[in-house]
Amino acid sequence: MRKVRKIGLVLALSVRAGLPWGAEGHRVIARIAAQHLSPRAKARVAALLAADPQAGPFLNAGSGGDALASAMAAVAPWADTIKGTKLGAGTDNWHFLDLASADGAAQIGQHCANSDCVTAQLSIMTANLKAGSSLPNGPNTYSPADELKFIIHFMGDLHQPLHCATNADAGGNCLATRGFGEHELHATWDTGLINQTMKDSKGHAIDEAGFAASIDSEFASQFAGSTNITDFGQMAVESHDIAFQAAYGPMLARGILPGVEPRGYLNVEVSRCASEAPDFYNMNPPVDLTVLYNSATLDAVRWQLAKAGYRLAVVLNHALE
Predict the structure, then answer these.
(1) Residue 124's domain is classified under what CATH number?
(2) What is the dihedral of CA 4, 6, 7, 9, to 10 degrees?
(3) 201 confidence band (pLDDT: 50, 70, 90)
(4) Who contacts 314 (Cβ-Cβ below 8 Å, separation ≥6)?
(5) pLDDT grade for 64, boundaries at 50, 70 and 90
């Protein structure tokens, strides 16, 4: 199984290492969503997470929006942490949907066989959550509480542009880059750029709660417009388009990638980057993202985090009302 795949400034910047949006991005999205849940949805989310070993302590220690936001943030990375374990068996491909440059909504079905992608699983799990149904998956059966944790995570994945796009490089996992503390394109968007945006005007790190609040304030006027899109496939195509504009776009515009670009669809396994995408994997020197990305790239990252949070709230409001 493929592993789940892990903008900007002229100067190379050092950012701290993070988990494979990285864990911080997922937690920020969960905190934004918590502020926009209906009273009924808040109560249902709290009830579902009350027994969770990570979320429960927050809910038991306090009440109100801050406790719920902390609880949702605590479980947001869970779907990543179970990968490679018995509990997460068969869920690796649920985190992404590969769409090539020329692909759109019409190609989603052919690249998501057996509902083995993020859009299909979100559709299944939100329906189950609304009905209070569990989800059998091989040796495991996921409870509604588990499905809630998956949904919180997958809505973040859906809005990480490189979880919905590939240029025959496993969504950027195989493309060697430098800058922003990472060494390949996907990890840069998963973690490096998130860490870079989580700084104030003086370059000091901002805590997750403060960062989530600042994003929510920045984009509050666009909540209604951003939540007009309710179809997961549409969200995936939107993320795909952003990937080829903001992530791959600066490279394609300068013609610095080898071969004919952009490339057609190719299913590349992350574990076989060296053999299936050698021209990207062995690029020397690696693509220097610090000269390609600028402040508009970081704006795109923040906007994706905001949309993910807003849409997650609407999804949960609908499923839990």
Answers:
(1) 1.10.575.10
(2) 180
(3) confident
(4) 36, 227, 230
(5) low
